[in-house]
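We close this part of the discussion by returning to an individual protein. Part of our work consisted of pairing the sequence of a single chain with a tokenised description of its backbone. The amino acid sequence and the backbone structure tokens for this protein are reproduced below.
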Amino acid sequence: MSGSDNLIPLNQRTKSEQREIQGKGGRASGKSRRERASIRDALNAILSAPIKDKELKHELKNMGAPEMNANSLFALRLYQRALQGDMQAVRLVLQAIGEADPAALELARAKYELALLKLEAVNQANDEDNLLSSKFVEALLATTEEVWGTGEPVKPSGSFGDKG
């Protein structure tokens, strides 16, 4: 016998049974709501309490924070993560200031990813240029060996502008 076999739907119960079950649900819901409100109030009190650490206060003051509390510190840390490219932090900052337009967020994410791809392409091109340059130098050295018949490639001494 499975657990659902012995369940009786609410619409098949008497009115007094329905009221009793719904009353239990309402009381449990109210208790849960009061607990969440209590936690929210405690967190708000903690977050609005002044910061005592001098280094943190100095950091907040340098960034122009209006208040020296944990809320300001959280905002500062979130801002710093957003500047480092953390898109979740960017989204939270934009939501906090009321600029969380989904299209704008998607556009910002796409621009960030495009910038990363461009940077990767530039780095790859630089690596390929360095590889081509070293191959070019190797080819030149091999050519000097053939021209002068020294048996060994001629090694350049110093830079091209040097006279010695």
Observations:
- Residues 102-148 form the longest helix (47 residues).
- Residues 102-164 form one domain.
- Residues 156-164 have pLDDT under 50 and may be disordered.
